[in-house]
Amino acid sequence: MWRRFADIPYTLLVFGIFMLELVGLGTLIWTFALRTGQLVPDVFVEQTLIAATAITALGLLLLTAYILAYHVLSVPRERRRQQRLETWTDRWFGVLFSTEPTPTGRLGADATAAAFEIRERLKGSEGKEFSRLLEELRLGEPLLDRLRSFRLTTRLSALDGLAKARLPGSIGPLMRAMLDPNPVARFMAGRAVARTMSEMPPDARRDEVALTFARALELAALPPGASGEILLLLEDAAPVVLAALFLDGRLPAPLVRAALDVVGRHRLREFTDEAVSRITYRDREVRAAALRALARLGIAPPQASDPIVIALNDDTEFVRVQAARAAAYLPPEVAVPVLQGSMGDSSWWVRRASAESLLKLGPKGIGTLWAAANKHPDVFAGDMAAQVLLDAGIKAPQFGSGLSETA
Amino acid sequence: LRLESKKAMSAILVVDDDPISARLLELTLTPGGHQVEVARDVSSGQRALLAGHHDLLILDIFLPDGSGLEILRFLREDLKQAIPVIVLSGHRQEDFADRATKLGATQYVTKPFSLRDLLAEVDRLTG
Questions:
Q1: How far is C-alpha A289 from the geometric centre of its chain's CA atoms?
Q2: Going by C-beta distance under 8 Å and a sequence separation of 6 or more, which residues neighbour residue A178?
Q3: Does residue A260 surpass a pLDDT of 60?
Q4: Is A207 on the interface with B (CB under 8 A)?
Q5: A284 has a chain B CB within 8 A of its CB
Q6: Which residue of A lies nearest to B3 if distances are taken between CA atoms?
Q7: Cα distance between residue B78 and residue A186, in whole Å
Q8: Are B27 and A90 a contacting pair at CB < 8 A?
Q9: Cα–Cα distance between A131 and A361 in angstroms, integer?
Q10: Across residues A139-146, what is the average pLDDT?
């Protein structure tokens, strides 16, 4: 977007040019229609055509002049704004580290914006101290008021500011904003709660907030990607929210999928059993997410053996792919025979994942790949084994003569 | 709160396109006696490395004209410099940290971070 300021003049200008064009084109069509009926002379049509073209040229000229003038004026304006933000950054930094007095009186938009930007970048005791200062100066209150605005853009910008500010006192209104009729506002509210929660101390209050947040996430009914991003932003508070989510036996499948993705991404090994128990879930996306989480955790406990082996024969290709990846963490005596079988899968992706898992299984797996590269009954399985060995830079003299870099 | 530094007097290059982050780093490190130079993108970061000697590099990963890891690769492979490098990133995921460590990063710090902890780390690495 090339504009940051002056939305209203730009809208009025575009509307004015559009109306001019509308009148010009309307007159032109009307004149041509009259000419077709021989009701006006040629010269009149020519004059109208010239006038309509002139209107178009005038419109383009106005628009170009506006854009050029905008850039000429807005670049120094933006520079001045950056300077004011920098001045306030210096000042807030001084206040935080006790080298400057706390500002008093009504603080302007630049002071507030700089304060929220700084808060977003601070962690630990500095972040908490700065949040305390922002609450003391009541900088969050105008944003909380704007959450009630009927304009979506106002609500979104307030949610963005509150996500940066991470004010513990804003959690309640933000939870309510997670029930906003607009899904983008619900997502932004979820992000703001998650970022605020990520800095809460691990106490009973956080556990209580986690339970409410888990319920709010369920009611927000966001797509799995959006829920996943919110859960990732919880950082150290993620386990307590995930525990609350997994406690709910009727959790919707998209949220289960998002929660499992976060288990894998944050490497939360304490949720291994939750992942294992969902390998056989009714929803295929959840089955895949559970297997992906195990592969990311790098764990396949004994009770996961049978479900993973079963998942290698799942009807859905992407579930089989994830099962092949998770199988790399089963004991070699279990994994090697099943992966050897899935090397002959009809899907290229499953064959590839199986071969890569065999490679991870050490000498037994590599031996199986060598054998497959030489004499697997399925030619595609043999080719895949050879390709994975070549990609890994493993060369074996006993490869068949037909095996080459292009295998 | 107080910022305490060992007054190590080191030349530090900060490569970060975020003006607020860069300014906070400057404000944190300068009173500690460090000399801070700020670059905003990969190309100006590489130019700064070529132009002068630095004792420490603080590097953001996501830059407007590429990845901060390109600067790290440039430093280690082309310039063959072994100065300590602190990589800053908004990503907690281990694969980012692994990639940075493989390329020769000394420390991987996720944003947001504590300015005092970072200053202590800078003092440790330059002391």
A1: 17
A2: A186, A189, A190, A193, A216, A217, A219, A220
A3: yes
A4: no
A5: no
A6: A97
A7: 48
A8: yes
A9: 49
A10: 90
The per-residue pLDDT for A268 is 94
Q: What DSSP character marks residue A122?
A: B
Nearest chain B Cα distance for residue A82, angstroms: 9
Q: Considering only A9-18, A104-113, B84-93, which range has the smallest mean pLDDT?
A: B84-93
For A:116-175, CB contacts with B below 8 A are 117-118, 120-127, 129
Q: Which residues are registered as beta bridge partners of B37?
A: B13
Q: Is the pLDDT of residue A158 over 60?
A: yes
Give pLDDT, residue A405. Answer: 44
pLDDT, tens digit, 9 for 90 and up, residues B52-65: 889 999 999 889 99
* Residues A270, A204, A189, A177, CA torsion sign: positive
- The minimal CB distance from B1 to the residues A85, A129, A266 is found for A129
Q: Which DSSP state fits A327? A: G
Q: Per the CB < 8 Å rule, is B112 touching A121?
A: yes
**Hey, what are A376's tokens?**
């697997």
Provide the pLDDT for residue A320.
96
Residues B6 and B120: beta-carbon distance below 8 Å: no
B chain contacts of residue A96, beta-carbon cutoff 8 Å: 1
Q: Region A185-194: what's the mean pLDDT?
A: 96
Band of pLDDT at residue A219, cut at 50, 70 and 90: very high
pLDDT above 50 for A406: no
Say if residues A362 and A337 touch (Cβ distance below 8 Å).
no
Residue in A86, A120, A266 closest to B23 by CB: A86
Asked if the C-beta of A79 comes within 8 angstroms of chain B's C-beta atoms, the answer is no
Instruction: State yes or no: pLDDT of A404 exceeds 80.
Output: no
Tokens of A297: 């955790």
In angstroms, rounded to a whole number, what is the distance separating the alpha carbons of residues A207 and A239?
A: 10
User: E strand or H helix at B120, and its extent?
Assistant: helix B115-126
Q: Helix crossing, A204-220 with A183-197: angle to 10°?
A: 160
Phi, psi angles (nearest 5°) of residue B58: -115, 125
**Helix pair angle (A379-391, A348-360), 10° resolution:** 50
Could you tell me if A242 and A231 are in contact, meaning their C-beta atoms sit under 8 angstroms apart? yes
**How crowded is residue A356: how many other Cβ atoms within 10 Å of its Cβ?**
19
Are the CB atoms for A312 and A324 separated by under 8 Å?
yes
Among A84, A126, A231, A236, most B C-beta atoms within 10 A, so best to mutate, is: A126
Q: Which residue stretches of A204-283 are H helix? A: 204-220, 224-233, 238-247, 253-265, 272-277
- Cα B111 from Cα B59, distance rounded (Å): 12
- Asked if A97's CB is within 8 angstroms of B3's CB, the reply is yes
- B62 forms beta bridges with B67
Instruction: Please give the backbone phi and psi of residue A55, each rounded to the nearest 5 degrees, phi first.
Output: -65, -45
